[in-house]
C-alpha cells in the first residue's frame, strides 16, 4: 500500500473520532441533569432514571457510529 494512502487513512480515522469529544460532554450533561432534577424532586426518581438511561443510550450510539466510521476508514 502506498505510504501516502496509509497516512491519509490514519488522519481520516483520527478526524472521525472527533465526535467522541461531544459524546463525553453529552454524557456529562445527561447525568448532571439527572442529579439536578433529582435534587429538585426526589419523588420522580424512577421516571428520571428511565429518561436518563434512554438519553445515555442515544448519546453512546453516536460514539459507536464514530468509532465504526474510524475503523471502516482504517481497515478498508
TrEMBL record:
Subcellular location: Mitochondrion membrane
Membrane topology: Multi-pass membrane protein
Pfam family, one: ATP-synt_C
Transmembrane region(s): 12-39, 51-75
GO molecular function terms listed in the Swiss-Prot or TrEMBL record: lipid binding; proton transmembrane transporter activity
GO terms classed as biological process: proton motive force-driven ATP synthesis
UniProt keyword annotations, A-Z: CF(0), Hydrogen ion transport, Ion transport, Lipid-binding, Membrane, Mitochondrion, Transmembrane, Transmembrane helix, Transport
GO annotations of cellular component type: mitochondrial membrane; proton-transporting ATP synthase complex; proton-transporting two-sector ATPase complex, proton-transporting domain
Entry annotated with the keyword Cell cycle: no
Record bears the keyword rRNA-binding: no
Residue ranges of domain V-ATPase proteolipid subunit C-like in the record: 11-73
Quaternary assembly: F-type ATPases have 2 components, CF(1) - the catalytic core - and CF(0) - the membrane proton channel. CF(1) has five subunits: alpha(3), beta(3), gamma(1), delta(1), epsilon(1). CF(0) has three main subunits: a, b and c.
Membership in a protein family: Belongs to the ATPase C chain family.
Protein name listed in UniProt: ATP synthase subunit 9, mitochondrial
Organism: Kumanoa ambigua
Amino acid at each position: 500500500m502506498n505510504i501516502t494512502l496509509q497516512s491519509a487513512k490514519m488522519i481520516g480515522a483520527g478526524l472521525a473520532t472527533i465526535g467522541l469529544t461531544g459524546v463525553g460532554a453529552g454524557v456529562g450533561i445527561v447525568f448532571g441533569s439527572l442529579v439536578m432534577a433529582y435534587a429538585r424532586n426526589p419523588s420522580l426518581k424512577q421516571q428520571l432514571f428511565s429518561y436518563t438511561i434512554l438519553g445515555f443510550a442515544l448519546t453512546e450510539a453516536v460514539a459507536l457510529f464514530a468509532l465504526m466510521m474510524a475503523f471502516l476508514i482504517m481497515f478498508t
